[in-house]
Design a protein that fits this description.
It comes from Kaistella yananensis. This is DUF4848 domain-containing protein. With about 550 residues, the protein is α+β, with helices and mostly antiparallel strands. Helices cover about 25% and strands about 30% of the residues. The chain has 13 helices and 25 strands. The strands form five sheets. It has a nine-stranded mixed sheet. A seven-stranded mixed sheet has the order 3-4-5-6-7-9-8. Strands 10, 11, 12, 13 and 21 form a five-stranded antiparallel sheet that branches.
């Protein structure tokens, strides 16, 4: 009888391909009958014949080391919005900086701004201003793809990123965009800002996460996250959840991390015009720093969600570059995000609640009556290699909604409370129960690192994700983990069975509500430096 129940469960369960990332494209020249071609340069911009070619190139370098990114960009000989600097290309980058300064001198709108002359007379000040552009276009690889005017071309359209959002215009109508920006006093170069009142009025008059037409040949997009309305129930109700202290045989490192105060990430009201970007910098000895980032970028053409720590040195060019250190550590004590499909389906509550655990090429399934017991169905030789990257982890726990407190918070639309209740479920129940269950199988209790917990609430069209992550490296300069990126995956729902199948057609969504408690630290000359970022209760 129990086996029959499991057959029913399997029939009614979600497919686990639920995240919005896709696998990297195979090494081929065609994907879905679309020709993948190498980029070229047109009028100083990186040019791709189609979006798939851009995605292919971005996938190859998004998590690559700085040398690989610099080599790719330097081979194109464009002047990047934010160049990737290494010891090998410092002179080339400095030469391009001088060219960029010469260009700024010809930009009448830039030269009319306050202190423009003094700024371009000081290479290091301009270099610092370029470094600060990370607060607007924070993805290192993608910002290197953009030219000095924050532009890229795909097919016959030019995409221009500004401090009020993204503008899209046909190549033949490019001059119209320049006129449009000038008439509305919107900056045409990120090295000088749009007036705050102009910026605020323009952004707030536009919808978010929609490509719209703002003029005859000009489209617009922004991914700004609107401030929480205190009367909407969207904030509050969170906080106070337990987080375990960091433990490690290295007591000096443990004391340093647990003693870190939460930094104040740079991300103002309109800085997040292209999604979330929390950046903390710990500068020491004048020319060294450790930069820690948590990000959920949405640049319309590509997106990327993850965490990063970098150790850098300010070289003779005045631009920060990579610099190896003794040891690097990147830890995510709690990372949360969600996918909202409520506008596409709301699946009726089912009695076949199941929990599935994926680990070491095994799949273990439990129905509601045998939750976390040893009577679950165990399928060995089950590979998750075909799953989206977001579901490839040391341990993945997939659970149908059966927590009334999480469900009530979702139903009330209280996002902070939902995050708090999910976090309580993860640390106060899932992790301890997993440890006990593991020991009952004769295994040592697993560490709480590199675990993905997926809470599925189909009744409300929601999928909630909680992750932990840890990695370390010696004699290195960067650690990074992308949780989700690239193209999105949508869903088709079969109402007769409840089965959901992935599609790349309609109903595409990106991860939302990224919250994180993390640290990024580096050790040099026997001393630790770094930052802790906590946006869990935001």
């Amino acid at each position: 009888m129990k086996n029959n129940n499991f057959l029913k469960i399997a029939t009614f369960s979600f497919l686990t391909l639920v995240a919005s990332c896709r696998e990297e494209l195979p090494n081929t020249e065609k994907t879905n009958d679309v020709s993948i071609q190498e980029s070229s340069v047109k009028n100083g911009r990186l040019y791709f014949p189609n979006k798939e070619s851009l995605q292919f190139a971005y996938d190859k370098v998004k998590n690559a080391d700085d040398e690989a990114i610099a080599k790719y960009i330097d081979s194109k000989n464009i002047i990047s919005l934010r160049p990737v600097v290494t010891k090998e290309n410092e002179k080339l980058v400095n030469d391009k900086l001088q060219t960029r300064i010469s260009y700024l001198k010809t930009n009448k709108r830039f030269m009319a701004t306050k202190n423009a002359g003094a700024r371009i007379a000081n290479d290091e000040e301009i270099a610092d201003d370029i470094d600060d552009l990370e607060e607007i276009v924070g993805d290192d690889a993608y910002s290197a793809f953009l030219n000095q005017q924050a532009e890229i071309q795909v097919a016959d359209e030019i995409y221009k990123y500004t401090d009020v959002g993204l503008f899209i215009v046909p190549e033949e109508n490019y001059q119209e965009l320049g006129d449009y920006l000038a008439v509305r006093n919107i900056s045409d170069d990120l090295l000088y800002p749009t007036d705050e009142s102009v910026k605020e009025n323009f952004i707030e008059s536009q919808p978010t996460n929609q490509r719209i037409s703002v003029d005859t040949n000009i489209d617009y997009f922004n991914a700004r996250i609107a401030p929480i309305d205190p009367d909407s129930g969207g904030g509050g109700g969170g906080g106070g959840t337990y987080y375990p202290p960091v433990v490690d045989p290295n007591q000096q490192m443990v004391n340093f991390i647990n003693g870190l105060q939460n930094c104040s990430p740079t991300n103002g009201l309109f800085d997040g015009i292209f999604g979330d970007s929390d950046i903390c910098k710990d500068q020491y000895e004048s020319r060294y720093r450790v930069k820690t980032k948590a990000y959920n970028y949405n640049y319309y053409l590509v997106y990327n969600l993850g965490v990063k720590v970098k150790h850098q040195y300010k070289g003779w060019t005045g631009i920060w570059r990579k610099e190896n250190c003794d040891e690097l550590r990147l830890g995510v004590i709690g990372g949360q995000f969600s996918y909202d499909y409520s506008s596409y389906f709301q699946y009726p509550q089912t009695q076949y609640n199941i929990t599935t655990i994926y680990n070491n090429n095994s799949r273990l399934m439990f129905d509601a009556t045998t939750y976390w017991s040893q009577n679950g169905l165990n399928i060995t030789g089950y590979s998750t290699q075909g799953f989206p990257k977001i579901l490839q982890d040391d341990i993945v726990i997939e659970q149908f909604s059966n927590n009334q407190y999480i469900n009530q918070a979702i139903q009330a639309g209280n996002k902070a409370l939902t995050a708090d209740k999910l976090n309580q479920q993860f640390w106060n129940y899932v992790i301890p129960t997993l440890g006990t269950w593991w020991q009952n199988l004769g295994k040592p209790a697993p560490t709480a690192n590199n675990i993905t917990y997926m809470y599925k609430a189909p009744t409300y069209g929601k999928i909630l994700i909680q992750k932990t992550f840890y990695n370390s490296a010696y004699n290195d300069d960067k650690l990074e983990k992308s949780f989700d990126w690239g193209f999105q995956v949508g869903f088709n729902l079969d109402p007769s069975t409840g089965n959901i199948s992935p599609t790349t057609g309609e109903g595409l969504h990106k991860p939302q509500e990224f919250r994180v408690l993390m640290y990024g630290i580096a050790k040099r000359n026997g001393q630790w430096h770094g930052s802790k970022i906590n946006t869990i209760n935001n």
